[in-house]
Amino acid sequence: MSLLEIENLRLDIGSLPILKGVSLSLEQGEVMGLVGESGSGKSMTALAVMQLLPIAMRASGRITFDGIDILGAPEAAMNRLRGNEIGMVFQEPMTALNPVKTIGEQVAEGIRWHTRASRAEAEERARKMLDRVGLPESKFPLTRYPHELSGGQRQRVVIAIACALAPKLLIADEPTTALDVVLQKQILELLRDLVDERKMGLLLISHDLAVVADMSDRVTIMRHGEVMEAGETARTLTQQAHPYTRQLALASMHVPDRGRKDAAIGGAATTGAGLVPPPLTPPHKGEGNVGETASTHSSTKSPLRDEEPASAAEDAHARLEEKGDISSTNSSEHTASSATGTIREGVSSKSPSPLWGGVRGGGNNTSSSEGVSGQAVSAGQGVSTASRPLLSVRNVVRDYPNRRTSLFRVPDVFRAVDDVSFQIAGGQSVALVGRSGCGKSTLARMILALDRPTSGSINVDGHEVSALPEAQLKPARRSMQVVFQDPYGSFNPRHKVERLVAEPLHLLDEAPSPAERRELVADALDKVGLKPSDMGKYPHEFSGGQRQRISIARAIITRPKLIVADEPVSALDVSIRAQVLDLFADLNARLGVAYLFITHDLTVARAITDEVMVMQEGRIVETGRTDEVLDHPQSDAAKALVEAAPDLQRALERRLARLG
Amino acid sequence: MSIGEPVFPRTQSVVLQALSNRSFVVGCVITAIIALMALVSFYWTPYDITNLVVADKMKPPSWQHWFGTDHFGRDILTMIMIGSRNSIAVALVAVGIGMCLGVPLGCWAAARGGWIDEAVMRFNDIVFAFPALLSAVMITAIFGPGAINAIIAIGIFNVPVFARVARAGAMSIWPREYVLAARASGKGKAQITIEHILPNIAAILLVQGTIQFALGILAESGLSYVGLGAQPPMPSWGRMLFDSQTRMMVAPYQALFPGLAIVITVLGLNLLGDGLRDLLDPRLRRER
Amino acid sequence: MSAFLARRLLIGLVTVIVASIVVFAVLEIVPGDPALLMLGMNATPEALATLRSQMGLDQPIPVRYLSWIGGMLMGDFGRSWTYSSPVIDLIVERGIVSLPLAVISLILSTAIAIPVGIFAASRRGRAADAISMGATQVGVAIPNFWFALLLVYVFAVWLRLLPAGGFPGWGAGIWPAFKALIMPAIALALPQAAILARVTRSAMLEVLGEDYIRTARAKGIPRRKVLWRHALRNAMIPVLTILGLQFAFLLAGTIIIENVFYLPGLGRLVFQAITQRDLIVVEGVVMLLVASVVIVNLVVDILYAVVDPRLRVKA
Known about the structure:
The complex is a heterotrimer. Chain A is of the alpha/beta class. Chain A has 24 helices and 20 strands.
């Protein structure tokens, strides 16, 4: 008999079904990965096993744990199981611990309750457990409060609580989703060691196929409250018998086809070689693909719309030009970048962009241009003398005062960004990667002139954004826009899409007429693959991925030269993430817009950037071509990131190798 | 369940949601009745308030005088109807003062931060140290008693209440990404406050407004009870209770009806506020 | 001491100082010459001038402010013009009625409200919750002085169990004095308790939805124990805030309730002083009340730090 057996589990809220007959089983000492995108019901399955479901939910079916019928068990019996026989680790370590109790109290509480041990005995066991999860007494005495610990340390405490009594089953619900990759690796290793050591069964819930592939013996793949496929991990994920498994696997390894960029760099880095079949339906077909070169950049067609919806929007832009809002686009603008106060007319068919090639040679901090193909280098040399970088960051420092410890002492400072310098040229796509708290978001906010550096200078398209007063920032702001992480927090819920997308038009010196505004919004929506008719809707009517498209539409409506994207896909499900990355890649190719991509996710960096900068404790410790840095990291920070990054391909190879 | 996934689909229309919220419906009905009573009193009352019929004084409730008469022979129902005007006017104007001064103050503090925020909050602390009654006492000491005193005293007390609510609301909106996006679009703090902050804190301000309205009616009745509010012969609920006190032995009904009028009005407004909060605050709408 | 408390102490001090300036300034611009009021309309100019200089009214305003403040710090609140006795004596004499009244009603209201709130939260959505919250909804709407009248009618007029008003003085013995304070204290406490119970319930419900409650439940701790061990202390933070604010309302309420029951407390003193234009008494009592609001809020801040370790940052 299995340790845990779920048969035909159904869950409903009122008449709304959440789970539609889920079955799975888990043996003692086995690791089962439960994978699915948001809304698949994987967390609800776990909570049903714990009988900690929200009150409004009704469960039916059968859950047997160690011979006990869980759905029929009285509350007192469940209390004997929870914590003692079944432990659970949750997603959000920052809120999972009671802020007013010490970590010692919280770990010892379960021990005392289940074993009736004395306070001293329980504390001794709690101490041992905390030592085991990597929180030694010298630095983490039992009297510590949760707020004195970081997120990773708090998750260790949660694990200590869950495993304190060596339960037979451990349920981990997205235990590392809130943590950065390096911490993720450490926590996963800890979980694996504990499971091995204590012969626990582990039900690991994750949206990340790579994590599951790495950790689990068997996987169960869920979607919309149903089990799609289940089986031995390596076999399931390589054979991909079920179409949804295949779809998930492809999406997790998806690398956008970046057209001619790949050609220039010399081949994509990681398209599933060998094990995984290439995408069945690549988003790009033929056009605008590998063979194209810099000079024909403008002929690259959208993968989303093959025909440029030229007329209306171009008209609107043209009319704005007449008003003097947007200076006429010609080739000289691109080379000289002298036209301040303009909206750049993208890279229209009128003007081949010589600057694009100049990207590579442009940044002096970005490393070697040797690897770049001949064309690009020569093009770069051709213009680099005449052009200046689009974004230039010099010796930027940002200090924050630490929390005041005394009324009479000057508070000391925390240096979030420490002497950072780099440049980005027009059309270039650069990733800024680093662990959480490394200062990358602070840097982004300063570039966007939402925050000011303590010292140093930031120049965007000829405007000294670090020095100008807000009133004079308009021209600089026209040159750059932003896409944020959270597709739910990015929009004022009370405005319609038209108003949301049109917001940056405020930057124009002369407001467009309502008709022009609608045309511009329609054009922007069209470019991101949404319908112009969507402009009458409210943001809550869209899914996460669609909202991120609206966010991008808002960012491109003024035709900026630089888009700063702060973790733009990390809140999205893998399949949606792949589509949004495609859109980013496409816009880069089509509009020639440069990106600064802030991310902790190396697959994202690899997917759509040419250059990468690795940040650690406020400093940039390594820069270079994306594939070079990611394939051969030099600095410790980069090595740690690369090593910790979950990789489905590698995980499966390892697993297969182990199987022999 | 991952980020922000709505558990319940929004299927019900706003009207249906409102009608299915019991406290909202009951609160609406009570408030409407009280408001109607005040309006009707301008055109019609059962008796003439200025007509003192000594023969009819101290009559218990009867078919002629539903709520009885007072020591001057005035009809108590008539006095309650006319008194409602005073209560509503004082509370409404006081809420208006609180909103008009407090909301901009709170929004300003949240937008500017730093020492301005600190100064506004300390100002709030100072005003909070003077309960409405205490300021009414001081104002009366200067200008003598009257309904205007009550308005000013309650109004002053409302200012920091609205400033705090507006500030707290605004502070929670400012770090949102859509505000950052608006800033990246070059919009100034005043414009962002008008376009993004105010529409999103309007709901909590409305809820607070109904609560303060209810508190204002209570405070007004207290002030007129101790003689710091509306002065005779203008009838007010608090004053009627004061007058009834000495005649408690012989005419307890005189204390009953004005008191019930206060309780029902305040209850109605509080229910309305609770209902509005449930309807407007999506965080609370979701059952845990 | 933590930086948090040092800061709050400083803020409290500044609040009192600014409040004193406000009180002084407000009463300074009051029309009417106190000396004239005391001596009557047909006093001689010489007598007026003498009295003015005796009272210090001929000094420049800053000097008078400083001597007023300095005097108060030394316990000298000046002399009442109508009672012709030191204000401090009056305050002490009346304070021994008002202070016990405020304290009894505060204890009463807390003792009723918090258990009711917790009880309602733990039975959320059930009949007990609905009934107790319905009762508090009505309780919040009842003006305390009207409630006082109802109590008088029932217990004094009808049942004749308690005195309808007046205060025998503590000299008459603890019990008679206490009897005189029971009804005023209940009248003050119940409406406050209704508010506090609602706050407690919603704070508990808020906390019960937190992740750490689920963590505790996942340890196998039964629901009820989780409520007491984990939820209560966290829920006390908003409850304390309201408790601090309520103290100010309670003081204001004392002033009204003393008038209902003819209690010789500070509230009555203030009203008599106003009608008699005895401004120095008004100043003294108002300052005392403001200072006590500030002190209570400081106590609340200390309790915050006791409840919440995040505020206990050592200096």
